[in-house]
Amino acid sequence: MKTKLDIAKNWLPRYTGTRIDEFGDYILITNFQNYVTTFAGQFNCDIKGENRTMQTSTNCEGLSIINFGMGSPNAATIMDLLTARSPKGILFLGKCGGLKSSTEIGHFILPIAAIRGEGTSNDYFPAEVPALPSFKLHKFISNKIIEHNQEYRTGVVYTTNRRVWEWDEKFKDYLKTLSAIAIDMETATIFIVGHANEISRGALLLVSDMPLTPEGIKTEESDKKITEAFTKLHLQIGIEAMTEIEENGEQIRHFRY
């Protein structure tokens, strides 16, 4: 295996237990196994890779979903491995912490950009390169959110490689200086690695906590309530957007150097 593509073609099935030709042209990626389980139950399709690092499911319409795990290294890994399939579009369905009073738990965020605080993306492009989604993909997703009569926010998301930071007052003060609307662990990486691999990509984030205050930090109980209240809608918007974009959306062209 001498090239990146050679490696990706070998490793994508190894990580997911799924053949390359079984993935659809459009793919949802997420951190949560229950999203894959809900998807498979909705379409009565199999879950593959249950004994592998990543789990997948593909419905009869050719839409796939992948649980790639948590954090920026895993996000980079799946965005690299999917070069073996060359999908037409990838949408990340993730959760985030709200950093502004204008955001509330249960709101959706459609990021216009992400700050590269995670470090992983530095292996792909210099720090000066912004982490951006594919505009036409986000434009179509925004229409889907509105069709469901849901509010959403746009803004910049800060992506970090730190999972336990909510106790760190110095770091929280730093976040307040950035004008970021939310914080997560994957979005900037997905945008940058997607750009490097010429894959159209987007992110639809669900605000699951307000971590700048002690009472707003996510707990097992609060996360369960968020999951029960909003997971199905979050997933459904993603399913509809990525199913219908081929037929009704504008053609997505990726910028090439």
Question: How would you portray this structure in words?
Answer:
By secondary structure, this protein is an alpha/beta fold. Helices cover 37% and strands 21% of the residues. It has helices at 4-16, 33-43, 72-81, 135-147, 169-176, 187-196, 220-248; strands at residues 26-30, 55-58, 63-67, 89-98, 108-117, 152-160, 182-184, 201-209. A five-stranded mixed β-barrel has the order 4-7-6-5-8. α4 (135-147) links the parallel β5 (108-117) and β6. The radius of gyration is 17 Å and the shape is globular.
Give the topology, please:
Layout: H1 4-16, E1 26-30, H2 33-43, E2 55-58, E3 63-67, H3 72-81, E4 89-98, E5 108-117, H4 135-147, E6 152-160, H5 169-176, E7 182-184, H6 187-196, E8 201-209, H7 220-248
Parallel strand pairs: 1-3, 1-4, 4-8, 5-6, 6-7
Antiparallel strand pairs: 2-3, 4-7, 5-8
Q: In the CATH scheme, what's the topology name? A: Rossmann fold
Shape: globular
Multimer state? single chain
Total of DSSP H or I helical runs spanning 4+ residues: 7
Which runs of at least 5 residues are low in confidence (pLDDT < 50)?
none
- The largest beta-sheet arranges its strands as 4-7-6-5-8
The CATH class, by name, is: Alpha Beta
**Largest sheet: number of strands, sense, barrel closure:** 5 strands, mixed, barrel
